[in-house]
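Support case: user asked for a sample of complex input and structure output to validate their parser. Sending the pair below.
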Amino acid sequence: MCKYCKAHAKKYGKWYLNPEGYTEELFYKLSTLDRILGRKPKKVRDAEKASDAAWYPLGISKQLELVDLASKPVIGGLVKKIGNYLAMKTHSGQVVPTEDANKIVDLSHDIVAYPCMCKRLFKGQDEYKCLNFAPLTDINRKAPRGWKEKRLSPEEAKEWLQDFSEKGYVHAVFWWCDMPQAICICNCDTKYCYASRPKNWYDITNVYRKAEYVAEVDPDECISCGTCLERCQFGAISYDRNGRAQIDPKICFGCGQCRVTCEQNAIKLVDRNTHAIAKKIW
Amino acid sequence: MVKFQFDPSKCILPYDANELRPTKCLKCLDVCPASLLMFRPLKEKDEFGAPKFFEIHMIFKAYSKKFCPDCLKCVDICPEQAIKIKI
Ligand code: SF4
Ligand code: SF4
Ligand code: SF4
Ligand code: SF4
Ligand code: SF4
């Protein structure tokens, strides 16, 4: 179990399966300082700021300028540490396979789809693929320039997740101002993503944590059809010298999307926490 | 490192209040194979407090040498000649 699940999962195994993370109580909980200063909790203050869809890109561009400093020779190491700390304390995510994304749908309520901010900002196109849920949705509806939404029933949300999975998008659950408060399931095309790129390019690990799983191929079942290679957004799959697919556990994010088109069912997800190599890589 | 130069006087991206973002042009974003360009609001506000205009901005500059293949697609597609890339 990763240290974050140890701290936040309680008896539910994974931080994002802890039902407490989907409650109003946790979202609106006041700290001692909030009480003294007579102000709203940080989760609410930050959500109100983020609910202004028109100004939101300005904050993102400033964050990305700071991320860029992580590549500088002298200060880079420190910037990465600060980035990792802030990612945990603000808003970042962890990859989940479709099975777990469906469990998250069961735990949440008031599910809506917002346009994917990354595709909007970096491609100029809107695709409704960020599935958000209460209590954040409520704050967004009250905002003067709140995000446009499409409401979904839990059944519809699961159908959408299935559709995203067929398109090869990677699901990731995002926390808000600390685990275990979960607010959305993103469905990412990583070439636009402003979470996975700082992770993969600048090594700011906590921005887009790998799943609790890692994928493995059964070489006896693999018929070398190659469809899984095209499905992996992270370049973790190659062929071994016998022409069988092989997955590099150091690269694999455990998203499970390579399994979807494997007609041989040759790919399985195993627990990252007990995997000899992958357990150290998040 | 690739130097991205953008001339805001040539590219006017007004805010579209229905879509809560600029919806004009954005051709450079669409063609960039490395998704290294974004739009961001300029400081000026309209009467409702929304941004009046947006500009085009390059992100992940430290990595632009690696990921911007100098394809110049953004330069070529821009109808206003608002983008220059210095190599
Ligand atoms: S994290 Fe993923 S789904 Fe969410 S806004 Fe970015 S690319 Fe879109
Ligand atoms: S999709 Fe399945 S059968 Fe095809 S190469 Fe990958 S693991 Fe082998
Ligand atoms: S190899 Fe790993 S990262 Fe790639 S698609 Fe499969 S599970 Fe996802
Ligand atoms: S030169 Fe090509 S890769 Fe570089 S910013 Fe322009 S479109 Fe993108
Ligand atoms: S292509 Fe040119 S005019 Fe169009 S948005 Fe980009 S910089 Fe502006």
